[in-house]
Design goal:
18 helices
Length: about 525
């Protein structure tokens, strides 16, 4: 149902969002056609038939720890990197909006993860890497050949999201080389990556997160031979295209990135890329599920008419589309703030802290939306939506990783509180919302949304630390709905597109105020849910 469509040209809200934030509509039609045809086929094939395989030993009896992936997947990643330049945009005068729009259009989280961990590695080496690392970033960014794949290995079994509990140790070996020993439990790109970002604690460094440094670990040692081993690959319910394994570091050669005492700051900055990518990917998953459901609803007949003509089905499509458009607004607001903060270094400016806050909001809201939209899409298909032979089943299964990857909703809520109370990041958020509301299509509605955001901040400030933590996820959602209402109302004014005013009304009334959704009228409803 979504196969064969140009996923960029049929997505007016994505194109409008890019036009709003960049004052132009990027030419992503070629990518849109590719992801709706060949990449759709490759992703389906990999998920059903062609999982990555861990080859531990070579034919010569030497440890190889290579991961074999489907050749079609290899070619697809190469085309996305070099023909469509998904990772190239920020390094050639383009925009981070174009990069993250590319992740959205790819949709498949396994393929998107390969691109994202490669982009994260490129960014860290480009911004903070020494001369011995600079040449890597051009191949990771798709600027030079042969291609390279990057990876980010931060998670350890005893800590998970608690990076301060990491036990991997680093010791100096001379000539700018360090030796790392430890165990990374969730290592996406294991056996595939040419170079990985790895957190480790230098000998003598303090305990906790602030004692961590960030290192680059190549796949091979300077004298040849593997630089680390892969214990096994994980047996996952989704994201099959990206191999995820357990990596054992045994005096693995590594290169320090930036200053040794700023590793946790570099790591958290780098995580902003993957969290925004998680947001963009979640929107892409939701959009693909919507395309499947919408086109199915146009053709499936029940009770004497097409099911899209039934009011309850139209109501479900409306809910799905509103969640997608809210998610687009929050995602690209986070992208916009991140783009403005990329010149920052520790200690960071308020622009960076605001970007971090909006990233936590967007990551949480979009993940929830993807799970909800894909569930509704499966339901619209009825019993066949639960069958693996139909794409909508996979999109729901894939959506369920988005609330987990890059920090669960609990982690996003805790990080939101830290950004607010320690960095004051709520202040530029509220100032920005007030300014956007002043130029909104419906200034009254936008102002009420700003007041709701202000009240949320006041309520949190009046609570004890434990109460604030208990209520942090509610606050995260309320700030997300309030922010998207204002952004959508401003979009309606700037673009001259009344539809975003109607979407903002539904977000405010139904999601922020938690009132029932009423039919906005058949003409408006038809305009919002229609696919071009």
């Amino acid at each position: 149902m979504a196969y064969g469509l140009n996923h960029y040209l049929v997505d007016k809200p994505l194109r409008d969002t890019l036009r709003y934030f960049t004052s132009k509509e990027p030419d992503l039609a070629g990518l849109g056609e590719y992801v709706g045809t060949e990449l759709y086929e490759v992703a389906y094939r990999v998920d059903r038939l062609s999982w990555p395989v861990h080859v531990m030993w070579s034919v010569r009896g030497e440890r190889s720890d290579t991961v074999l992936v489907d050749p079609a997947l290899r070619r697809a990643v190469d085309r996305l990197m070099y023909e469509y330049g998904v990772n190239r945009h920020p390094y050639v005068g383009g925009s981070w909006h174009e990069h993250f729009a590319g992740i959205n259009l790819v949709g498949d989280p396994g393929v998107g993860c390969i691109l994202t961990i490669t982009m994260q590695t490129a960014y860290a080496l480009w911004k903070y890497g020494g001369e011995e690392l600079k040449h890597y970033y051009r191949r990771l960014a798709g600027l030079d050949r042969p291609p390279m794949i990057g990876a980010t290995w931060f998670t350890e079994i005893q800590g998970g999201s608690d990076l301060g509990a990491n036990e991997t140790v680093a010791r100096k070996a001379g000539d700018g080389v360090w030796l790392l020993t430890g165990y990374k439990y969730f290592a996406s790109g294991a056996g595939l990556a040419d170079i990985a970002l790895v957190t480790a604690r230098p000998e003598g460094a303090p305990a906790g997160a602030k004692g961590l440094s960030l290192f680059a670990v190549p796949r091979y040692r300077r004298g040849g031979g593997l630089n680390y081993s892969v214990r096994r690959l994980k047996d996952k319910s989704g994201t099959i295209a990206v191999p995820t394994g357990e990596v054992e570091l045994q005096d693995s050669e590594a290169y320090l990135i930036g200053d040794a005492d700023k590793g946790i700051y570099y790591t958290l900055e780098d995580l902003m890329i993957s969290r925004i990518a998680n947001s963009a990917g979640a929107v892409g998953i939701a959009r693909k599920a919507y395309l499947e459901a919408y086109n199915y609803a146009k053709h499936r007949r029940a009770f004497g008419k097409r099911i899209i003509e039934h009011p309850l089905v139209r109501r479900d499509l409306l809910e799905m589309e509103v969640l997608i458009e809210e998610s687009l607004a929050l995602t690209h607001k986070a992208v916009d703030l991140f783009e403005k903060s990329t010149g920052d270094r520790p200690p960071y400016s308020m622009t960076y802290h605001y970007a971090r806050l909006m990233t936590h909001i967007a990551k949480n809201m979009t993940a929830q939306a993807a799970a909800r939209v894909t569930m509704l899409a499966m339901e619209l298909f009825g019993g066949i939506g639960f069958l693996r032979e139909y794409a909508v089943e996979r999109w729901h299964r894939e959506a369920l990783i988005t609330p987990i990857w890059e920090g669960t909703s609990n982690i996003q809520a805790l990080d939101m509180l830290e950004a607010m109370w320690k960095k004051g990041a709520h202040k530029p958020l509220l100032e920005d919302l007030r300014a956007l509301a002043g130029d909104a299509y419906d200034k009254g509605l936008a102002s009420k949304a700003v007041e709701a955001a202000e009240e949320t901040v006041r309520r949190l400030a009046s609570m004890s630390p434990s109460q604030a933590e208990f209520n942090a996820k509610y606050a995260l959602e309320d700030l997300g709905h309030a922010s998207s209402t204002v952004i959508l109302e401003n979009m309606a004014a700037v673009l001259g597109e009344e539809r975003y005013h109607y979407v903002a009304e539904i977000v405010y009334n139904s999601l922020l105020q938690r009132r029932p959704v009423y039919n906005p009228g058949e003409e408006v409803l038809g305009e919002i849910i229609a696919v071009e």
